[in-house]
Specification:
The complex is a heterodimer of chains A (about 500) and B (about 140). Helices cover about 75% and strands about 0% of the residues of chain A. Chain A contains 21 helices and two strands. In chain A, helix 12 (about 270-290) runs parallel beside helix 18 (about 405-430) and helix 14 (about 320-350) runs antiparallel to helix 17. The radius of gyration of chain A is 22 Å and the shape is globular. In chain B, about 70% of the residues lie in helices and about 5% in strands. In chain B, the strands form two sheets. A two-stranded antiparallel sheet of chain B has the order 1-4. In chain B, a hairpin with a 3-residue loop joins strand 2 and strand 3 (about 110). In chain B, helix 2 packs across helix 3 and helix 2 (about 40-55) runs parallel beside helix 6 (about 115-140). The interface between A and B is medium-sized, with 22 and 21 residues.
C-alpha cells in the first residue's frame, strides 16, 4: 500500500472541495489555501523520499491491477515535479493573500487554485496515458476559470486564444489516444512501452509519435504553436500568472519527457531530430519575441517559451548528461519564472504599472527588490553562480559531446540575447531615475506604508534564496537530476514496478 | 426570464418536482449494476429544480433550496474524495470498493458501499454545479 503517491493528488482535491464548501468564509479559505499547499509540499517531499529510497512507487487505484486499472506511478522525475508543484502552490498561496482582489476570492479563486494543483500533480504522477489526458483537462478547466475571473476585456481576448489552442491540442491528444488503443489495446504507459518496443510498424508508430509531439508541444508552448501563451499569461492577477508561468507549460514538457523516453524510442533519429529543430526554433523565436516587448510580464512570457527550447533540447539530444541538464533546467526554470512574475507584481504594487516606460527608480528606493530581481534574472540568462548556469552548462555540454554544433550555437546565442533582454528591464525599471510622469509614488518612497507588502516579499525572498542555493551547492540537485535521467534512459525498472509481480 | 404565473406550469411543477426527486434517488441507487448512477440522477434532480425556477423564479427557488448550490457542490466533492479513504482502514489501496451489510429492523439486510458514497458525491456535485450555472444565468437575465 503506497499512500505516498496518492496523497499529493487527493490533498488538493479535498482542499478544493472544502474551500468550495466554505465559499462564504474567505478567512477560512485563505487558511485552507496556505496550510493546504503547505501540506501538499510536505506530502510531495515524503513521496520524493520514498522514491529515492525504494525506487519507483506504484499504486493501483481501487486495487484494479495494471494494465487494466488506473495506476499511479512516481519515479524521481514525477516526484520532483510534484515537490516543485507544492513549493509553487505554497508561494502563490502566500502571495495571493496580499494581491488577489476580493471579488476574485468570492468567485472561487481558492477552490480553483487547489483544483489546478490537483490537475498538475495528477499529470505528474499518473502512469496511465488516458488518465494523463483527464488531468490535462482538469488543469485546463481550472486554469480557464482562473484566467477569466474578473472578466476584463484583455482577459477574454487572451482566454479565447488560450482555450482554442488548448482544445485543439486536446483533440489531437485524444485522437492519438484512440489510435494507440486501437493498435495496442492498452493505455497503461508501462504496458504500452513494452508493446511498442515489440511492434513492427515503424511508419505508423512515427505518425503516432508525431501526433503526441504536436499535442504536447502546443501545451508546452513550443514552436510553432506557442502564441497563445504570451497572449494570455499576463492577463490574470499576478499570483495566478506566476503559477501559470511556473507550472502549466512545464506539464506539457514533462509529458514529452515521459512519452519520448518511455514509449517512443523506436526511431530516435527521426522523432528526436524533429524535437531538436523545434527546440532551436523555440529558443530563438522566444527570445526575439521578448526583445520586442515593453511590458515586464510579456517579456517574461516570451522568455518562458525560450526556456522551453532548452528543456526540449535536453530531451532531443537524448544522452544522460543532456537529459539530466534538461530536467535540472525544468526544475530551476519553474522557480525562476515564478520569481520573476512575483517581482513584477511587487513593482506593479509600488508604481502601478507593468510597462517599462512607466517604471524607474526601483533600485534607488528599494535596493532589496533590485537584488531579488537580479538573482532570478541572471539565472535565466545563465550566469554563475546561479542555478540557471549549472543547468545550461549541462545541456550545452551534452550538445558539444554529441557534436551538435548548430544547436550549441543557437543555445549560446539565445543566452546572450536573453541577457540583453534582462538588462533592458534592469536598466529601465530599476536603474534609471523615476520618470517625471509617475504620480503615485508614496509607497515607493516610503511615505506611505503598505501592510501587505511583506507577504509579497516573503515568497520572493525564499525562492530567490533557493535559486542561489541550487547554484552554489549544486551537487545534490544535479545528482538527483542525473539519477532521474538514469531512470528515464533505462525504463525497465519503471515497467517492472508497474506491471511487476502480483501484489499480495 | 420566463413569465412566472402560468397556472398550468406552476400546478404541474408542484406535482412533478417531488416525483422527479424521488425518481432521481431511484436512479442513483440502482446505478451500481444497472443504467443510472450519480451523474444522471443529479441531472434528473436538477431538471426538477430548474423547472421550479421557470415556474416560480429565482428567489422562490433559492428559498426552496435553503442552501447555496455552491455549497451543495462543495459537499458533494468532499464526499466523493472522502469515499477514497475507507479502503485505507482495511489496508487496501485508496478507492478500493468496500462493502458493508448491516441489518436493519423491519427492512432486513441492506448493502452499503464506498462506491455508493462516491455516487452520492457525484449526485450532489452535479445538482450543485447545474443549479449554480442556471441560477447565475437567470439572475443575469433579471
Amino acid at each position: 500500500m503506497n499512500l505516498a503517491v496518492a496523497l499529493p493528488i487527493l490533498l488538493p482535491l479535498l482542499l478544493g472541495a472544502l474551500s468550495l464548501l466554505a465559499h462564504r468564509r474567505l478567512r477560512l479559505q485563505r487558511w485552507l489555501g496556505v496550510l493546504g499547499t503547505g501540506a501538499l509540499l510536505a506530502a510531495a517531499l515524503w513521496l520524493l523520499r520514498c522514491v529515492a529510497r525504494e525506487g519507483v512507487v506504484v499504486l493501483h487505484m481501487g486495487d484494479w491491477q495494471a494494465p487494466f486499472g488506473i495506476t499511479l506511478a512516481a519515479d524521481l522525475l514525477g516526484a520532483s515535479m510534484a515537490v516543485l508543484t507544492g513549493l509553487l502552490g505554497l508561494a502563490t498561496a502566500v502571495y495571493s493573500l496580499a494581491t488577489t482582489p476580493r471579488g476574485h476570492e468570492q468567485y472561487g479563486h481558492w477552490p480553483l487554485l487547489h483544483l489546478l494543483l490537483a490537475g498538475v500533480t495528477g499529470a505528474f504522477l499518473t502512469g496511465d496515458i488516458f488518465n494523463l489526458y483527464v488531468w490535462f483537462e482538469v488543469m485546463l478547466v481550472a486554469s480557464f476559470a482562473l484566467l477569466t475571473l474578473g472578466g476584463e476585456r484583455a482577459q477574454m481576448e487572451g482566454a479565447i486564444k488560450y482555450v482554442a489552442l488548448n482544445l485543439l491540442s486536446s483533440m489531437i491528444f485524444l485522437s492519438a489516444l484512440g489510435i494507440t488503443y486501437g493498435l495496442f489495446g492498452t493505455l497503461n504507459m508501462a504496458d504500452l512501452a513494452a508493446k511498442v518496443a515489440a511492434a513492427d510498424q515503424p511508419g505508423l508508430l512515427s505518425v503516432l509519435a508525431a501526433m503526441y509531439m504536436v499535442a504536447f508541444g502546443i501545451k508546452a508552448g513550443a514552436f510553432p504553436l506557442f502564441f497563445w501563451l504570451p497572449a494570455s499569461y499576463h492577463t490574470p492577477p499576478v499570483a495566478v500568472s506566476a503559477l501559470f508561468a511556473g507550472l502549466l507549460s512545464k506539464v506539457g514538457v514533462y509529458s514529452l519527457y515521459r512519452v519520448f523516453t518511455l514509449i517512443f524510442t523506436h526511431d530516435v533519429g527521426y522523432t528526436h531530430e524533429i524535437l531538436l529543430w523545434a527546440a532551436g526554433l523555440t529558443m530563438l523565436t522566444g527570445v526575439l519575441g521578448a526583445l520586442a516587448q515593453t511590458e515586464i510580464r510579456r517579456i517574461v512570457s516570451f522568455q518562458i517559451i525560450s526556456s522551453i527550447g532548452y528543456m526540449l533540447m535536453g530531451l532531443a539530444l537524448f544522452t544522460p548528461l543532456a537529459l539530466a541538464g534538461g530536467m535540472l533546467y525544468i526544475g530551476q526554470d519553474i522557480v525562476v519564472k515564478i520569481t520573476l512574475f512575483l517581482v513584477a507584481g511587487i513593482a506593479f504594487r509600488l508604481l502601478g504599472s507593468y510597462r517599462l516606460e512607466a517604471l524607474g527608480g526601483l533600485y534607488r528606493y528599494r535596493p532589496l527588490l533590485g537584488v531579488l530581481f537580479l538573482i532570478p534574472a541572471l539565472s535565466l540568462a545563465g550566469l554563475p553562480p546561479l542555478s540557471g548556469f549549472i543547468a545550461k552548462l549541462a545541456v550545452v555540454r551534452g550538445a558539444i559531446e554529441e557534436a551538435s554544433w548548430g544547436i550549441t550555437f543557437v543555445a549560446l546565442l539565445t543566452g546572450l540575447l536573453t541577457l540583453y533582454s534582462i538588462i533592458r528591464i534592469w536598466q529601465q525599471a530599476f536603474w534609471r531615475e523615476l520618470p517625471a510622469h509617475a504620480t503615485d509614488t508614496g509607497v515607493l518612497r516610503g511615505e506611505r506604508r503598505d501592510p501587505g507588502l511583506w507577504l509579497m516579499y516573503l515568497p520572493v525572498a525564499v525562492l530567490a534564496g533557493l535559486i542561489l542555493l541550487v547554484g552554489v551547492y549544486a551537487q545534490p540537485f544535479f545528482g538527483l537530476a542525473e539519477a532521474a535521467a538514469g531512470q528515464l534512459l533505462d525504463p525497465q525498472a519503471y515497467i517492472d514496478a508497474v506491471l511487476g509481480e502480483a501484489r499480495p | 426570464m420566463m413569465q412566472p404565473g402560468s397556472l398550468i406550469l406552476s400546478t404541474m411543477t408542484r406535482l412533478l418536482l417531488p416525483l422527479q426527486l424521488l425518481f432521481s434517488v431511484f436512479m442513483l441507487l440502482r446505478g451500481h449494476d444497472l443504467p443510472g448512477g450519480g451523474f444522471i440522477a443529479g441531472l434528473v434532480a436538477s431538471a426538477g429544480f430548474i423547472l421550479y425556477l421557470f415556474a416560480f423564479g429565482v428567489a422562490a427557488t433559492q428559498a426552496l433550496l435553503r442552501i447555496d448550490p455552491r455549497e451543495i457542490a462543495g459537499a458533494g466533492l468532499t464526499l466523493a474524495v472522502l469515499s477514497a479513504l475507507p479502503a485505507l482502514l482495511y489496508g487496501d489501496p485508496v478507492f478500493t470498493a468496500q462493502w458493508w451489510h448491516p441489518s436493519l429492523p423491519l427492512i432486513g439486510e441492506i448493502k452499503l458501499s464506498s462506491p455508493l458514497l462516491f455516487d452520492i458525491g457525484v449526485y450532489l456535485t452535479v445538482i450543485g454545479s447545474m443549479l449554480t450555472i442556471v441560477i447565475s444565468l437567470a439572475e443575469a437575465e433579471e
